Fold these 4 entries.
Entry 1:
Amino acid sequence: MLPALMDEPGLQYPGEALRSWLRQFAKTPLAEPTLKLLVVLADTVFFASLGREEGQATRVRIAYHAQGLQGLQAVRETVYIGGQKGKRQAWETLPLEPRSSITDFSVEALVKLAPAAHLPRTAVVVGPREGKLRIQGLARRVEYTEFHAEGEEDVFIIHAPEPGHLVVSTQGREVFRYEQGAPVPPGRRVALHDLLFHEDSAVRSALMEMCSTLVESLPKVQPLMGGNREWYVSNAVQGLIRKMAGLHHGGLIAFLPKQHDVERFRSRGKYVLPPEQGSLLRQRLQRFVQARADLINGAWQAEAGKAAEEEEDPELKKAAAEHDDKVTESDFQALVESIGQFTAVDNALVLGPELEVLCAGYQIAIPRSGPPQVFEARTLQGRPGPHYPISQHGSRHRAAAVFANQHSGAIVFVASQDGPLRCLHRPPGKKKVLLWSLLLTED
């Protein structure tokens, strides 16, 4: 018998909600057999997310392709390495032998196997076999680039980030979200990637202003092949935010603009980095981008007109440049992970201008009058929309609003269990604190 909960007016099962949404919003109409299939996939993932394994909530992610593992293995992504354009396999796959109790597509099988896919960009692969849906193995997506991947339009990722929640993605972009018994209306959320990377974004503009000296210090990389200098700064911030969100613990990260007494913040934090260590994130980013520029810009190639007897083996020089690129990137990403981990402690992680890491555990006092008024941003540029009831949330959200209001130009990201990731920002010279509700593209 179906749960009485879904008898409440306005509540829908996720599969039914997905079918209705696709019929209304899908750019390309889907055939009825495909709709029926997606309904089954969505409902199965939804109910699996309500299960528990070893006392832990089940966070299920599946990748569906009409040709199963073979379809994923055929997806190719464009990459640029050492200035050369090439293709690589977009999914790393691990097949499983078919066994009815293990690989039949069911709620029970997903609950058992889901922990094996609880890694970044990793999913349980589902596809047809002998006329039935089967679990065919595990697959991990290589990191997404800005380029189109051939064949990925036929891959659907269905993900339950929290019990009772459902997200459908394709080509690295979220296309449907289901929470609290209903789909989240399109347009209510902004992709974190767009907020940090899109040139029209008010938050990106504020970030580039507070990191202008850092941006100028980075070497130029051929944009088509390695991203411009601003891209690397946005990517560093994105890594911190994703780490906070991935901890599922709740957290707050505040970025201070220039013209602030950073020592005042450093002295009031519970966990304080020595001043000489506060610049470590910036330094590792600079080393990484320099290594990437040397590789992509071809610094390893022999200089024109150099005497043959003085030339080193270009292949050895290229190999050394590739090694430096990998090592410096790994060192940088490891530090981003470590700093992001500080969001798991109470209160705020505070970074100053130029990505200076100041302190963690910084307590933001909320005045007796309560937090300031907050307005939902309707656009990336920050056009104010309706009043947002920030007081409906807990102390972390109220503290974020207070910090954004007190420090014009600051950028505050907050994660909690009572809703999506959010960003708050009061643009310089403006009176209104703006709020963006964010979504994470497929990670």
Entry 2:
Amino acid sequence: MTSQVYAGPYGTEPRHPGWPAKLGPLVVRAGSVALRPVHLRDGREWSRIRLRDREYLEKWEPTSPGSWTDRNGFGAWPPQWLSLRALARRGQCLPFAITVDGAFAGQITLGNVIRASLRSAWVGYWVSSELAGGGVATAAVALATDHAFRAAGLHRLEATVRPENVASLRVLGKAGYRQEGLFLRYLDVAGDWRDHISFAVTAEEMGAGFVARLIADGKAQPPEPR
């Protein structure tokens, strides 16, 4: 398939370089982690995990209309998937499913992709509570970050995390992101305006790659050769 081309004020470039893509695997304590585009057939497992993990996830996610059950029931997935697919086709988003040993385990998204002279995106992710502490989120962030700076041609990635979300703070730190500052009353989460710590990384900080850094630090392993 040939990528569409965008002729904007800063020159001509592919509409969505680096998409679609399959990334990994990378072996961590929880298993073999890989990223792939989200699929319509992910809906049943997506809904099962998110309904089960309400207490684990809801306190960190933006306030949204409707009940948790309505927003995360099986019927909520098709319109969400269609929206993500449309954004990806327009080059505004790279929506990945996280898999562990081949099974759906969560999502990681490079969103609000801006090209031209900025070339940036934000990073958001969630992982099943059953895999918490197993290195899955860190591996997913490293895989997505390498891809963003290589095939997708981005220059800067940003992430924001509530100060109370210690697990996610650790994920970003281990994945190579640096803290930049504190955004006061930044986002409406769980019904109130919450402070968030901002993290970022740029292509100049990549070195040999964030996956390579995890492997060198003993936090992940490459897959066994077949």
Entry 3:
Amino acid sequence: MKKVLLTVFLISLFNTTGFTQSNYSVGLNLGLNYTSFRGSDVLDNTNSGFGHLEGLFVEYRIDKRFAINTGLNLDSKSIKYETNYTYTYFDQQKFEVVNERWDVKTTNRYKYLTIPLLLKYSFGKSKCFFVNGGGFISFWQNHTKKSRAINDKGVVIDNYSSSSGNNFPLADDVSSDYGLSFGLGKLFKLDNRNTISVELRDNLGLCNTIEGTFVQGVSGVIKTNSLSLIASWSFCL
């Protein structure tokens, strides 16, 4: 399904009517992101996590300094949660009550289809540096989670059976997102048509990304923040 969406998006770019080809570039994005949630005390035991992104983009050059950039990225974002509990049982061999402490770490992975819309400004010698700003909208696709448990004796269970108690409240209710984007990067010109760029971009979520927080009695709104390091290849049409 994702490959089909990317193919349709690419075809639509090349079939867009009414543009001057010399002002357009298309390309590929690959990168890593570091995502966190903010805004509520239910997130106290959550930690930021690394994810990845890949996608396509199209850029329209207004003049030598300004350009408009948009595209379609597949984002995988990670949030981690840590908790612990005590398991009590009776050891018949030692004839005593045993208390085992277990630490559980759960990794949540959320996948999105993200569409940015950015205004890009190039500066410096040969216009090789750039900043951009604008907005993004991310459409939620799916959520997977995996838990790992270790006790005070060093016993490890890698595929620990995850329950609601091993994850932060409303972890399964994360939904789509939108917000502001800001970036800073550098271009490396390969030839007259091909360039490579490296960009540090921050996507600051503005909406309550978890539905039902107020209905279920969770205080505050939960918003995202994702810092991405993106490498892009661009081809001038």
Entry 4:
Amino acid sequence: MTQVLDNYNIKELTGKNGLVIFFFPRAKSADCSIEIEVFNHKLKDIQNLGFNVVGISTDKKEANEEFAKAHDLNYPLISDEHKTITKQFNDLTTVIRDGKEIERALRTTYLVDPSGKILATLPDVNAITAASDTINKIKELQES
């Protein structure tokens, strides 16, 4: 699949039961590489629960294209360069990089139902356990 979306319709991305939207701070960084890989590895498990997956960062499209291709992802990434989506989710932070202040996404995962309602927020996720934590949260929601 390995795609970075320009035009997208959230409803088209959403699975039968919902969509996992995970924000990652920076393409090609070590932790973000781990996070996208664990979601790729656990994608079938998530889809079996009726959810699809999309990753979002504030990186340029070209950076995410290289990132997605290098990891042969089976789900799409969205480059939110203008921070429109990231601001809607109130998921921005300011960091200093190369002596400049920049805004970037926090490492947060959201579970969204087919109508667009946020079912759960997983803040400050651990890159290594992000997908497993997401699966556990989906199961918890489905059991309640």
